[in-house]
Amino acid sequence: MYCPSCGVQNPDDAVFCSGCGKKLQPAGGAQQGGAVRQAQPGGLAAPNMLYYMLGAIAATILCCPPVGIAAIVFAALINSKATAGDLEGARKAAKTAMILSIVAAGLGLIGWLMFLMLGGMAWFASMTQSPYGM
Description:
The chain is mainly alpha-helical. It has two domains: 1-45, no CATH class; 47-128, no CATH class. It contains three helices and two strands. It has a two-stranded antiparallel sheet with strand order 1-2. α2 runs antiparallel to α3.
């Protein structure tokens, strides 16, 4: 069962959400005012697109643009899929956007470390040369 507040998947017999701690409604429906209210699939919370979009944009600008652009595309799909009622597709797009953002950040970090390492080696080589060319 998915939490209607945060969208985290919980075991079917869970009473409280493992993500946000809010009380979950039973899967078959809940008693409310003497009537049985059925759980609506559209009542599930969609992932927050803004959260994933900000990470994707930061990864694109600061780290690795090719992978970051793909993360932006998947982050943009979240709202359109959720609006169309495809919450599972929205969750998959959010997960893909997050993975691509992390990959872009990792590649960017590796690139910056290599840049600093090679720059340091070049600086060290220039400092160890004799000013007289010997």
